[in-house]
Amino acid sequence: MIPLLSDPTLHTVALGTALLGVMSGVLGSFAVLRRESLLGDTLSHAALPGVCLGFMVTGARSLTGLMAGALVTAMLAAFAMVFLVRYTRLKTDAALGIALGLFFALGVVLLTHIQATGGAAQAGLDAFLFGQAAALSRADLLPMSSVGLVAVGLVVLLWKPLKLLTFDPEYAAVIGLPVRSLELLITLLVALTVVVGLQLVGVVLMTAMVIAPAAAARQWCCSLHGMVILAALLGATAGVLGGGLSALIPGLSTGPVIVLVASVIALGSLFFAPRRGLIPAWWRQGHRLSRTSSDRVLETVYQLACEHGSGRYRVEEGAVDAYHGIATAAILVSLRERGLLEAVEHMPDEGRHWRLTNEGMSYAAARAGRPDEAIGV
């Protein structure tokens, strides 16, 4: 374990995946909020022919050349999508699907052609489909960090316009912001993020890295500022944990493990986040239903007391059961524990009776909309 922690290859992978996680979290937040999750999927698949063309032009697996080619074809796919939406009757999702299928098919054809031609230089080029983080070198970190710094820096610099574009694009256009230029910038930044992640996660799985950290952060945060920061932290955490797990367990591919960790974080957030998580929401709903049932039973006791003109009227438990059509013993006991009712004896063999406490009378009268109305004692 200790020798593994001092492994320079692991350090390089950890730095690269942390950088990818930060970029994915920051840019993915805007994609999720703008409901453009499929955009990341399209750009990641469209990057494959660029990787192949970059290799064919340079004749080597130079990361800079491959990233440049991937960026070019990713942006071409984005322009193709915009063209189809603007000049045809196709909706955005259909245009994204067409661009994804077309460019990915082209990438597979080019990759097959390169592999068929042979040559040692193309060895491992197909690793860009699912990523090969172990092949990352210290030299590769420089272009990755440069791209990441530029992407995050632009988001910080244009924070207010991008925020307004995300939540109210119509108003942004009205006040004169260059909406189309900003949308193009977001697309370009997402494409840059995809390009950075190709070697680490791969074309097929990169969309999950763009979406999962942002989707997880959305469950915990109510502000864009908090969501972007948390998404960046969750993305970096997923990258480092995934890289560490793949190093600890021989035979595991780093890219898929990173995506699995990010997906587990997203699923955990969907279920357990306090504000929007499914389990806390179910608990709150059950609590509200339980509280509503308790209040309805208390109102029944209050109404019977009003009809008899005495707040100290002893209400028979069986009468409350008959009124609601269910056994109310547990609810009545819970009302007693809240200090709203008290159990009393009436006559032998007549069953348990209940009457309102002073607090119970005040609470029930307020719920009935008659807080100032007194019931005779």
Can you count the helices?
16
Q: Main β-sheet, in a few words?
A: 3 strands, antiparallel
Shape: elongated
Q: In CATH's first tier, which class of the largest domain applies? A: Mainly Alpha
Range of helix content: over 70%
Helix-strand pattern: HHHHHHHHHHHHHEHHEEH
| Intertermini distance | 76 Å
Radius of gyration: 31 Å
CATH fold-level topology of the largest domain: ABC transporter involved in vitamin B12 uptake, BtuC
| Strand percentage | under 5%
Short synopsis of the structure:
This protein is mostly helical.
Main traits of this protein?
377 residues, ABC transporter involved in vitamin B12 uptake, BtuC, ABC_BtuC-like, mainly alpha, Arc Repressor Mutant, subunit A
Give an overview in words.
It contains 16 helices and 3 strands. The chain is mainly α. Helix 3 packs parallel to helix 5 and helix 13 crosses helix 15. The chain crosses the membrane at residues 12-33, 42-60, 66-85, 97-121, 141-159, 198-216, 228-249, 255-274. InterPro entries: ABC_BtuC-like, ABC_TroCD.
